Amino acid sequence: MSEPLTGAEAAIAALTRLFEQGQDKLAQGASTGEARLPMSARYCPEYKRLSGLDDHEAFDAQIREAERAGAIAADRTRQGGDSAGWERLRLLDLDVLAGLLKRPLRHQQFALTRHSLEQSLAHHPVIEQILEHWRLGKAVRGQDMTALSTLLDATRVATAARQAGLVERQLRKESARLFGNSKRIEQLGIWLDILSSGELAATGLSDGEIWAQYGLRKEPQPLLLSGTGRVTISASEVNLCRPYLGLPTRALEHLSLHADFLLSIENLTSFHEFI
Length: 275
Known about the structure:
Elements: H1 7-27, E1 36-38, H2 45-48, H3 53-68, E2 72-76, E3 86-91, H4 94-101, H5 106-117, H6 126-135, H7 148-164, E4 169-170, H8 171-179, H9 189-197, H10 207-212, E5 216-217, E6 222-225, E7 229-233, E8 236-239, E9 245-248, E10 252-257, H11 268-274
Parallel strand pairs: 4-5
Antiparallel strand pairs: 1-3, 2-3, 6-9, 7-8, 7-10
Helix pairs in contact: 1-3, 1-4, 5-6, 7-9
């Protein structure tokens, strides 16, 4: 069980909760003045857990400071006189409270985020859904607006894949080329999955399957050929052999088969079962 908060920490937690409620109201088109925080065990358990006099005084000091700054109004319970506790906190000025808490305002952060992603919307309409979740303060697969840089990197991978066309590329070599970090693409799985599927929900694809959507593989995949014929590779002719012959795809120059039809099998397990 975690240690109980001090009075000052509990006050910051309460003010932060009121701050987030105010941001939600703003995102919903409502007045931030509608934000209210009852000081009950349900809505502000940190306050109800305070026991010592020092902690109560420290909590009160933080609340009064926010009141003096004009950020909030705090209502005391009707009973208890000077020793009465707090009944509710009411938000008066979201900007002032943001300054006291040293927290960024979501709508300002969102405007910058949307601007950063504007050019990617044409190729990835799902980004509009991501932005709407973030505007409302909702996470996408556990990721909030602080993950912007990761999403932007994923869009770079997608752009590079469009430019490469059908050319298959080695994962870590491409990662080093794009980011100067050979393992960066491997950290972008969530966003690469979303951008390729166009859906916020997880597809269930493995990392390798997600990378393949962008023409990326951790190791180059050989072309496996089974049948009767000849191939030309590096200006040399080689006979196909049984059960199969494996060749680097990009090195293949010419293929000549003695067959009535050509069967292409993409799945490696199925290929081995068929031959």
